[in-house]
Every structure is written in C-alpha cells, then in structure tokens.
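=== RUN LOG ===
request id: a7f3
mode: sequence -> structure
chains: 1
length: 321
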Amino acid sequence: MSQESSSPTNQVRFVEITEGNAGQRVDNFLITTLKGAPKSLIYRIVRKGEVRVNKKRVKPEYKLQLNDLVRIPPVRLADRQEPAKIGTKLIDQLEAAVLYEDDDLIVVNKPSGIAVHGGSGISLGLIESFRQMRPQAKFLELVHRLDRDTSGCILLAKKRSALKLMHESLQKSRITKIYHAMVMGSWSERKKRIDAPLRKNELKSGERVVKVSADGKASLTEFKVLERFGRQATLIEARPITGRTHQIRVHCQFAGHPIVGDTKYNTDEMNDVMRSHGFNRLFLHAAELRFPLPSGGRKVIKAPLEVSLQKAVNSFKSKNS
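=== RESULT ===
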C-alpha cells in the first residue's frame, strides 16, 4: 500500500506510491484514498492543480509510477454515515450467490435490485455487504459494475494486485462478458453487430440517460439469437466489446428491440404487456464471465438465471410454442 506522511483530510498529505498502486490512474487512486469524496470534487482539485505528482500538475488519466510523491490537498468531506448493518437474510442470499472464490477474487451472481455500491440514498450495496461478510479481507473492491436491475456475474478483487491485473485484462480484452437479454419483437439473424457511438445525457430531473450520438464514444456490441418466442420477443446473447454505461440496453433500443422490463429505454405499454406474462424486472443477465486467474490459467463462470425469471421464460415458451 501507499506510504502516507499524514492522514487527516484537513491537512496536506504527501503519499509515496509503492508497488501496490503503481500503474493506477491518479483519479482512481484519489477516489479510493479520499473515500466519500464526490467525483466532481476529485476532478476539480486535479484540474486546479491542487493535486501534484512530484511537484508537477497532472491530468486525471496520469498513471502513477513507483516512488511518485503525490500531494493531496486538504478536502472537506461531509460526515459519512456508517453503512447499514447487513441482515441475516441478505447474508444468506449473497453467500448462496457466490459462484467462485479464491485468495484473489470473488465472482457473485448478483441478484437484480441490488446496487453494486451504496450512494444516492442506498446505504448498503453489494461491495459494502461483502466487506461486512469478509471482515478478514483488508482489501475488497469491485472490478467492474452492473446496473442495479441487471443480474449475473460480477467480479470482486480481494487484493490490489488482483484488481490491477483484472483492469489490465479488461483494457486488453482478455476478459469476456456474455449477457443474455429478452428483447421485444423478432431480432434479425443478420443483425450481428451494432457499432453506434453513445453519449451520456442528463435530464432536467437529474436522471441520466444514454443516447446514440455522432459525437459520443465509440461503442460496439456483438449479438446472437438464442431463442425466438413467436414474433413477440427474442432471447439474445450480447457481448459488449466496449464497456459504456447502459451500452447493451441502448444498442437494443437503437436496433428497434428494447429489452423487456427496461423502464428507461422501453415503453410502459410494452413493459405492461410482458409483465402480464410474469416478466417483472429488467431481463438483462450477465450469464457468463471468462477471465485470467492471477495464479495462472483462465476461468469460465456461468451464472444461472434466477428461478422466478426462468419460470416466466418457461411459461412464455409454452404459450408461444
């Protein structure tokens, strides 16, 4: 870990970077170091030059080097409430959802409806829950994220070195994420790739939506038809090649086949129709994860669909056969 000369947030701190943090972006390093600080504050102090590395201004994407000396300015953080204590029912649910665990990593079949981390009125997310469930793990961080209503494989790192390897693997496309989604209508067999740039937008209400936009970030998803349910719906496989916010959801909407149960990118009318068939949630599931192990070799983990959703699929299939 990094070596600090002073710890209070109301004083200037100088942190020397050790092997555990070498290679990490300075913005991500600050987000971890200044726990509870909003990202807007992090980027503001970097932009203003209040954060220095070896006495020089840096950009947020600067990658820290071994023995770099980082100046962290005093910051005023709102009093942080302790996360809510995890209940027995949630502990049992999450323990049952662990698909794989070793000394470096945990793979969880995240239930729909559970946020990956607290914030915005959520006091207890998946990562806070596992920190309480694994008190012996001094380090525990999310490798990637899933939307709150998306279920399936999510990867947690139990060591800084494992997190670094997983992030490098994501950047070099050595981690494969495979999703299953039920979409409205009949998806064409010829529609195998959607290459459409995406841009985040914020509505007046503060809600974030993502749209296909020529000035957005390059976004590519590969698709394959798995099963048809008449012309009413199609079960598809989606492989995001890039990792943009809401990428699969927006690309499906852009293709004219929004995901069943998507309250942001599908219509209330369509969702009501599918709800009558038992589909009461967003039908987007991270079904499979393929990744390298820090100890060597590769792992393939498959996450089963939750029972209630599988029942809805089976019932829907019988009605459309």
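=== NOTES ===
The two ends are 58 Å apart (CA to CA).
The first strand starts at residue 3 and ends at 4.
=== END ===
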